[in-house]
């Protein structure tokens, strides 16, 4: 039977199957999923078969959205709620979007190994006892519930170092956010209409993590591509057709809604410091970077948290060069004289005793209990 005589939905279905059968696309899925690739690609076809609107979508946007989920190792089964391929019309043309679920954010956060606890839930009438928007402190009591009416959503995390943060949004705030950033908010088949509480929980959790959380590379990808129409299998080309106000930057747009808290961001920076980082070298690096940018150390720390992975990669290279130079200078100095050593091990590095010259470059030199 000729393809042109088939119903449009059947043509789309066959096109998706054909795309997934291409060697280049199969290889892409196999690279990120290994032996799980075949099962995942089957789940893509199942998801399309179960959604009549998705059958009409541009096949490459369907497969590209699926590839994003695969790169994050998140299933796309709608009933699981980790990630979704959602149909949407762009200028009347059916396309597919990649969309995170709140369970997906929790999964990525816990997978990073930085969170002791990460949770989000609905809040019922009477459960919120106290909220201080200046300090971020909140008190909830389940026993105070007076009805089964959901009045809001709360997200919470606690890092391994003890830093914790809440974010609460009323149901009205969450839905106002949805209306502002999703043109498909009123679509009867859209997630905001079919499962508004799941979308409310996702909204508050995403805003909390993007503002205060430690974002792994996976988490950054998830936040960046959420609600995006992905146009290529590698995920490098995408657009926010459902979020016109974002102008291509959904992260900045959503962060702009929340108050900035420099102290919390600095605390998150401290929590992200790798165990291999030398405190004295880090202090020198921050000071030099601040001076070269005509700013403060705090500004450098806040800027670093926009892309912590890149920042620590740059610092690791600086630390390596710093130690190599210090070792060369130490060797040269030993040939001429014996340098004065600290009278006791460094408080920040209990197993090491440094030279007086080395300690002189430490930003904590003034007030150091060893030298004073």
What topology does this entry show?
Blueprint: H1 8-21, H2 23-33, H3 37-49, H4 52-55, H5 59-71, E1 83-90, E2 93-100, H6 102-111, E3 115-124, E4 128-131, E5 138-140, E6 150-159, E7 164-170, H7 171-181, H8 191-194, H9 196-212, H10 217-225, E8 229-230, E9 238-239, H11 250-255, H12 262-272, H13 279-292, H14 297-304, H15 308-336, H16 356-360
Antiparallel strand pairs: 1-2, 3-6, 4-5, 6-7, 8-9
Throw out a few tags for this protein.
alpha+beta, two-stranded antiparallel ribbon, 16 helices, disordered N terminus
Task: Please give a structural write-up.
This protein has helices at residues 8-21, 23-33, 37-49, 52-55, 59-71, 102-111, 171-181, 191-194, 196-212, 217-225, 250-255, 262-272, 279-292, 297-304, 308-336, 356-360, and strands at residues 83-90, 93-100, 115-124, 128-131, 138-140, 150-159, 164-170, 229-230, 238-239. It has 372 residues and is α+β, with helices and mostly antiparallel strands. It folds into three domains: 3-96, no CATH class; 100-259, no CATH class; 273-360, no CATH class. The strands form four sheets. The chain has a three-stranded antiparallel β-sheet. Strands 1-2 form a two-stranded antiparallel sheet. A two-stranded antiparallel ribbon has the order 4-5. Helix 3 packs across helix 5 (59-71). The longest helix has 29 residues, at 308-336. It is globular, with a radius of gyration of 26 Å.
